[in-house]
Amino acid sequence: MSTADIENPKPAASPHSATPGPLEGRARVFGTIALSTAVFMNVLDSSIANVSIPTIAGDLAVSATQGTWVITSFAVANAITVPLTGWLTQRFGQVRLFVMSVLLFVLFSWLCGFSWSLESLVAFRVLQGAVAGPMIPLSQSLMLASYPKEKAGMALAMWAMTILVGPVAGPLLGGWISDNYSWPWIFYINVPVGLLAGWASWQLYKDRDSERSKLPIDTTGLALLVLWVGALQLVLDKGKELDWFASTTITTLAVVAVVSFVFFVIWEVTAKHPVVDLTLFKDRNFTAGVVTISVGYGLFFGTVVLLPLWMQSTLGYTATYAGIASAPVGILAIMFSPLVGKLLSKHDPRRIATFAFLIFALISYMRANFNTEVDLVTIMIPTFIQGAAMATFFIPLTTITLAGLEPHRIPSAAGLSNFVRILFGAFGTSITTTMWDSRASLHHAQLTEIARPGEPAFDATMAGLRQKGLSVEQSAAVINNMINQQAYTLSATDIFYASAILFLILMGLVWVARAKPAKGGAGDVAAGAH
Q1: Nearest-CA neighbor of 349 among 515, 502, 503, 512?
Q2: Cα 323 to Cα 52: distance, rounded to the nearest angstrom
Q3: Which of 130, 128, 137 is nearest to 106 (CA)?
Q4: Half-sphere exposure (CA, 13 Å, Cβ side) for 109?
Q5: What pLDDT is stored for residue 153 in this prediction?
Q6: Of 505, 515, 395, 490, which is closest to residue 440 (Cα–Cα)?
Q7: How far is 43 from 187, CA to CA, in rounded Å?
Q8: Model-level pTM?
Q9: Distance separating alpha carbons of residues 268 and 270, to the nearest angstrom
Q10: How far is CA 269 from the centre of its chain?
């Protein structure tokens, strides 16, 4: 890749025109690679930590449940800044903002790896998530601008492929790094990748930046947004640790979350320049699409986090093998995505989304039948099938959400939809891990009722352990560990079974949306955004 190629992208239109034309030739190829690399780094960082949580938690001397704050803190901060993308773009220009986001992401990635405690790691993850907010929507916008309008579908396909490769590479890379090096390297690897992507993007797109203007920002709405989202996430993350509403802290945070949310809704509906355009929810399809994709994503992401946690902390798998078990989720997703794009032009997206929820329900039911003797291949089978559900889930529901909206409202609608979806992903993680611990405590109590002296099975097990030379205390500890393993496994299967039921319920929610003729599927939506 020569400097001449980068610095002279040869746009079809003058770079000084209001709307520069698409890139051509090698410049378009290099632009696609630069944007895809930045997006890949962002998506990778969202999934790479999943299998590393037990390692991080052990190294920082905290519980695995507390370790999930590393995931939720990033997701919440990321969700909050996504709706600000439009205002920030007009303030700084889309190219300048994108490159700034990439470089700041690199800086905070390095600081995450340098963290000395859970508190410092969570703080840096919050900052990392905040600066990452504009990266994905801006990369999509720049990718669409790099291609002719008639090739918008191809641009979206290239962009989506990068998004879907992350879930394959993230768990594998995270597990391998955690087992063979140390967990900080899951963040350090962003440094060279991000610096290269940021430099290449600036060289290619610096003369194609959007116009800048100083617009007023809804500071009150933004403050209320941060307040209610942050308070609610703290309730979910620290509730179990502080004994829920028996704690004054949790009760206070819950009241703050509810009150600030009510004031947020009232303010945003009446504000002249709202940070979030809530009037979009007047559109029936937008509301049905956002609710369905957000709840579905929350269920999906919660189980994505739970599976490697259960494998490592309960079944004794290494991070590498937990990554191997999680990785196949992207294979069918990548293969099916182009097919789904073609199907959308001829078929009702509600039917395709219904198929996705059927598959999600099936794999959740398959996992609900897992036990402590389950092998790696059995764990991988539903994960592999889940890829088909991902491809038929995101694309049709995004089409339902944005279809029928005026072109000028699509960027705001996409930002709001992503905000709610990412937020539900964070909430889904917190709720899932909290329920996992709570149900495990319940199952442990029930199992100890029959695992006590006087019960034939307990006495026989104790006798067998004593014959192997263990003391009474050691034998009791071994039995307690066995009970714990069973309790956490039963708790995980409870959650998988509940997820299967909820996915079936979501099938009905899809059909709340009106049927609208798909003129060109994702291509029309992309063209509108373009």
Answers
A1: 515
A2: 9
A3: 128
A4: 25
A5: 58
A6: 490
A7: 13
A8: 0.76
A9: 5
A10: 28
Measured from the Cβ of residue 56, the count of other Cβ atoms closer than 10 Å reads 24
The tokens describing 263, both together, are: 């004031």
Contacts of 460 (CB under 8 A, 6+ apart): none
Say what the pLDDT of residue 321 is. Answer: 86
With the CA atoms of 363, 423, 506 and 500 taken in that order, what torsion angle do they form, in degrees rounded to the nearest 10? Answer: 30
Residue whose tokens read 């409202």: 409
> Which pLDDT score is estimated for 251?
92
Please identify every stretch of the chain with a pLDDT value under 70, giving residue numbers as ranges: 1-20, 23-24, 47, 50, 150-158, 160-161, 163-168, 210, 213, 407-408, 411, 516-530
pLDDT in the model for residue 496: 95
CA gap 94, 100 in Å, rounded:
10
Find tokens 């504009």 and name the residue.
134
Amino acid symbol at 510: V
Query: Rounded to whole angstroms, how far apart are CA atoms 430 and 232?
Result: 11
What secondary structure letter does DSSP report for 10?
-
Distance of CA 478 to the CA centre of its chain: 37
Q: What six digits make up the tokens of 31?
A: 């632009």
Distance CA 424, CA 127 (A): 19
AA letter at 469: G
**Amino acid found at 498:** A
The CATH number of the structural domain formed by 1-216 is: 1.20.1250.20
Structure tokens at 476: 């009791």
